[in-house]
Amino acid sequence: MSKIKPYKDSDLSKKEQVTKMFDTISGDYDGLNRVISFGIDIKWRKKVVNLVATQQPKMVLDIATGTGDLAIALADTNAEKIVGLDISSGMLEIGKQKINKKGLSTKIDMVLADSENMPFEDNTFDAITVAFGVRNFENLKNGLTEILRVLKPGGIFVILETSVPTKTPFKQGYNFYSKHVLPLIGRIFSKDRSAYQYLSESASVFPYGEALNNILREIGFINVEDFPQTLGVATIYKSSK
């Protein structure tokens, strides 16, 4: 797995660095996401919600929930309880404010915890989602193994993650945008100059498509499928237990 970290001159672990980074950029995160993705990330999350809704889950876990965008969107399903989990208290605080404004505080709980060591019993959740979070795991396989543990048999696991277009000229255009434009936007609008450089670099080396499918199968997930989005700049992965 990639050893790319947000702060190259820091001795902190990747997990500690990612926590620090998201705490720092939490105030800018939602607005920057809309700019960087041209708002298309909202459409991608809606597709994740639709996949989850087909399972009619009662208990849903959204890992790396950040400011709660996907957890809030999942409230449109028939779920009785949604848990948003993240290691960044800064992101969670903004998420809680958004949830309160929408009157969803009785349906959505925001939990500060480590996705690679979750405070839940085995076989707790009917559905688990992760949007743009698995590439930030310190150990991808440990994180996925922990997700498999808390997912109920027959439950659905859906990942939304960045990927790299494979066809010309989209591949070249994506590479230019991710290496030059995205970090520039981050430097201009964010308090953390390193954060969006890291997000760009980590996306470029993270396994995607069949490579990630095979890792999911190796961990023990079944019925693994992937659905590339918007010329391949993101991919939705669906699997089960």
Automatic annotation (TrEMBL):
Protein task: Methyltransferase required for the conversion of demethylmenaquinol (DMKH2) to menaquinol (MKH2).
Tree of life domain: Bacteria
Keyword Methyltransferase in record: yes
Native organism taxonomy: Bacteria, Pseudomonadati, Bacteroidota, Flavobacteriia, Flavobacteriales
Pathway(s): Quinol/quinone metabolism; menaquinone biosynthesis; menaquinol from 1,4-dihydroxy-2-naphthoate: step 2/2
Record's keyword terms, sorted: Menaquinone biosynthesis, Methyltransferase, S-adenosyl-L-methionine, Transferase
PROSITE patterns: SAM_MT_UBIE, UBIE_1, UBIE_2
GO biological process, one term: menaquinone biosynthetic process
Keyword Transferase recorded: yes
Family that this chain belongs to: Belongs to the class I-like SAM-binding methyltransferase superfamily. MenG/UbiE family.
Alphabetized Gene3D superfamilies for the sequence: Vaccinia Virus protein VP39 (3.40.50.150)
EC number: 2.1.1.163
Reactions catalysed: a 2-demethylmenaquinol + S-adenosyl-L-methionine = a menaquinol + S-adenosyl-L-homocysteine + H(+)
HAMAP family: MenG_UbiE_methyltr
Gene Ontology terms for molecular function: demethylmenaquinone methyltransferase activity
Binding site for S-adenosyl-L-methionine: 67, 86, 114-115
Protein name: Demethylmenaquinone methyltransferase
